[in-house]
Write a structure and sequence with these properties.
single chain; mainly alpha; de novo design (two linked rop proteins); 2 strands; globular
Length: 229
């Protein structure tokens, strides 16, 4: 009995299966040199993490913006999160560092954290992004974590006060940065040795926890006398 004809790959070569993908671009996959890279999606947990951290940052930016307007209307206004000489949102809002780019910092947060939420919702809907998109997003989170690191230094050692809403934004930014970085490393979008890819794949939570722990320790030590009095 004659076998049924096998599908051709277009070059006259018969194959048992034919793979079709409409989600491939023309970049080279760093994990498979010379091969195309598929557009990359993300797990539901990762997407939810982006939505939650973006929402936390957006909430913080929104509250600070409202309090900033009230402070401009009434210089004697005291924000609700000004609890004591250390936890004093008003002191932070009145500082020069609160407008690092010539406009209130929370206005930048309103825009950037909204973008993070949109990315998370897009991934929840099943979107798959090319490598350049993920690297651009990673660069954005790197800028964010760099900026909040500068703000942390200013708060601890120059302004000498903390803003609780700012701290919420710091936490969200740090978490999203490390998880986006881990996502790109383990998928080969950021060059890294095999052990690093394995580490980020198995323990993506370690570095954000360590980072936040260091910040918490610095805050504890900076005002040790106040906390223990």
């Amino acid at each position: 009995m004659q076998k049924p004809p096998q599908p051709s790959d277009g070059n006259g070569v018969m194959s048992d299966t034919m793979e079709v993908s409409d989600e491939v671009d023309h970049e080279h996959d760093p994990r498979h040199p010379g091969g195309p890279v598929s557009r990359l999606g993300a797990s539901r947990a990762f997407a939810v993490m982006l939505v939650l951290t973006g929402a936390a940052g957006l909430l913080a930016a929104w509250v600070i913006t409202l309090d900033k307007f009230k402070l401009l209307e009434d210089p004697s206004f005291t924000p609700g999160c000004s609890l004591n000489p250390v936890v004093s949102c008003g002191s932070v809002m009145k500082s020069d560092q609160a407008a690092a780019f010539g406009f209130p910092n929370p206005m930048l947060g309103l825009a950037t954290y909204s973008v993070v939420i949109c990315v998370g919702m897009t991934l929840l809907a099943g979107a798959r992004m090319p490598r350049w998109y993920w690297l651009t997003f990673n660069f954005g989170t790197l800028f964010g974590v760099g900026f909040v690191t500068w703000l942390q230094y200013q708060s601890l050692y120059n302004i000498n006060a903390l803003c609780l809403w700012c701290c919420l934004a710091w936490v969200g930014t740090i978490i999203m940065f490390w998880y986006v970085t881990a996502h790109n490393v383990r998928n080969g979008y950021l060059p890294a040795p095999r052990w690093a890819r394995g580490f980020f794949g198995e323990f993506p939570w370690v570095l954000p926890v360590l980072h936040l722990g260091i910040i918490g320790l610095l805050i504890l030590l900076r005002w040790w006398d106040f906390w223990t009095s």
